[in-house]
Design a protein that fits this description.
Elements (H helix, E strand, L loop, with lengths): L12 H7 L7 E4 L6 H7 L7 E6 L2 H11 L5 E6 L5 H7 L5 E7 L4 H5 L25 H7 L2 H12 L4 H12 L7 H15 L11 H12 L1 H15 E11 L2 H16 L3 E3 L9 H6 L7 E7 L4
Parallel strand pairs: 1-2, 1-4, 2-3, 4-5
Antiparallel strand pairs: 5-7, 6-7
Length: 304
Amino acid sequence: MDDSQVEHIPVLESELAEQISLPPDGVMVDATIGHGGHSLLFGRNLGPEAVIVGLDLDTSCIHRAQSNLEKLQCRLILIHANFADLAEILPEHDIDKVDFILADLGVCSEQLARADMGLSFQADMPLDMRFDKRIQTTAADIVNGADEKSLAELIYNYGEDRASRRIARFIVEYRRKKPITTTGQLARIVARALATGRKKSRSRIHPATRTFQALRIAVNRELDNLAALLEAAPALLKPGGKIAIISYHSLEDRMVKTNFNENAKAGIYTVLTRKPIVPSRQEIARNRRARSAKLRIAQRTTTE
């Protein structure tokens, strides 16, 4: 399939629409704009005085969002940037406070299908994993350059795989013979490591899923970036403004939950989701990648 034809389906659209209502002149930050699906959902109800600020690390997504959102009445500001830098970016565009910050932390289908991203073990691609090509270190650099102990810690801490030491050992043994340069090579190495070290797994996920997750997080510094966004958000939200984060694994979700709860205890936020909102069975049937999504929402208190 042509990569340009891979459809990206926005996650938890109806649930977001139920929870978030923006004024006609509202200011929204879509911190991970992707192809613009979530921005289109809210942008349809925004007038000419409103603003959507869309950020993405992937220039391809910026171009796709521009095309998909060009008919909106509101002002659209699209920026090739990291949402970790949001506090510095907004003043550059004369924006002080915003009504809504949304971050969907998932990987879109089109990115998984693109060979230049090197994210998928479903096809043999160059082992890259950089969302932003300005990043210097690729997944191949880490896999071929890190020592065994560091690899094991990375896979355990970011992939939460208990077999991390065995996987790291298999990687190091393989790379002594030749470099690991493709996603297919790495996936086969991890699969062999797990097949050797475990009874037959009943897991529905591919054996390389956690290792690939760990490397992607490390390459793109995803948890550091999320921490920076969560820290900056309270000062950027108007009183009564809302922040919504869609996460896809427990590391992200724990960070969001902890941050929201700590800010609630400090009187900065009201947490609007005591438990995360998850997709319906119908949505998962339509979009299998939504199955692990968790949405948490907090509201900036109206008193400073």
